[in-house]
Amino acid sequence: MKIEIPLAQANRLINSGNVVLVSSAWQDRRSIITIAWHCPVSFKPPVLAIAVGKTRFSAELIERSGEFVVNIPDWNLVDAMLYCGTRSGRDEDKFAGAKLTPEKAVKLLRAPKIRECIGALECSVIDRVEIGDHYLFFGEVIYAEVEEGLWDNGTWKPETAQLIYHLGGNRFMKPGPVSEVK
Ligand SMILES: Cc1cc2nc3c(=O)[nH]c(=O)nc-3n(C[C@H](O)[C@H](O)[C@H](O)COP(=O)(O)O)c2cc1C
Question: What is the distance in A from the centroid of ligand 1 to the CA of 4?
Fold first, then answer.
């Protein structure tokens, strides 16, 4: 038997991937936003999409600069992830507040990356679509890096990379056993 759920929760049936920290900057302002709504959308060129609420400070910074970095936190950064997801960069510098270290990106000019994260995708905005109360920013990935010991044969190393999966609300999940399906 199936039960009907509120449409406001429907996204949680499909959106249980790892949360990311998206950093951006414009002039002397910068921010880090926790993002659960993200998705790869093209192989060639490599493009990903992030859904950013229209009222978020990060939406302004990404719109003006045309850049963002998708940083991958692990469970060591769970408190920093919650911090960046509950405070606005309009009111404070979240690098200081969340005790994260800004590092110059390899290819981007403005958006800093986060040293403590285990991977980073440097993205240049190629399009922006307005959908309801969010903007969908499409970023071409121009540089990607990962912590060496956590990468194996083209994927995260099974059971070693402690990604933070988001089930919705205040529920998060740790990686479990990995199966290689033949
Ligand atoms: C686990 C989690 C996931 C979130 N996912 C998103 C998201 O996908 N898109 C979004 O716009 N906000 C999301 N948020 C909320 C923003 O991170 C939050 O509003 C943040 O304070 C915005 O910061 P800013 O104003 O500096 O951009 C999420 C928050 C949490 C805790």
Answer: 27
Q: Would you say the CB of residue 56 lies under 6 angstroms from ligand 1?
A: yes
Q: Where are the domains of the chain?
A: 18-173
Give the predicted TM-score (pTM) of the model: 0.98
How confident is the prediction along the chain (182 residues), in pLDDT tens digits per residue?
999 999 999 999 999 999 999 999 999 999 999 999 999 999 999 999 999 999 999 999 999 999 999 999 999 999 999 999 999 999 999 999 999 999 999 999 999 999 999 999 999 999 999 999 999 999 999 999 999 999 999 999 988 999 999 999 999 999 988 888 99
* Pick from 84, 64, 78: nearest CA to 21: 84
Q: From the CA of 34, how far away is ligand 1's center (Å)?
A: 5
Which one is the CATH code of 18-173: 2.30.110.10, 2.60.120.10, 3.40.50.970, 3.30.450.40?
2.30.110.10
Interval between CA 68 and ligand 1 midpoint (Å): 15
Burial of 18 per CB tally in 10 Å (0-12, 13-18, 19+): buried
CA distance 100 to 10: 33
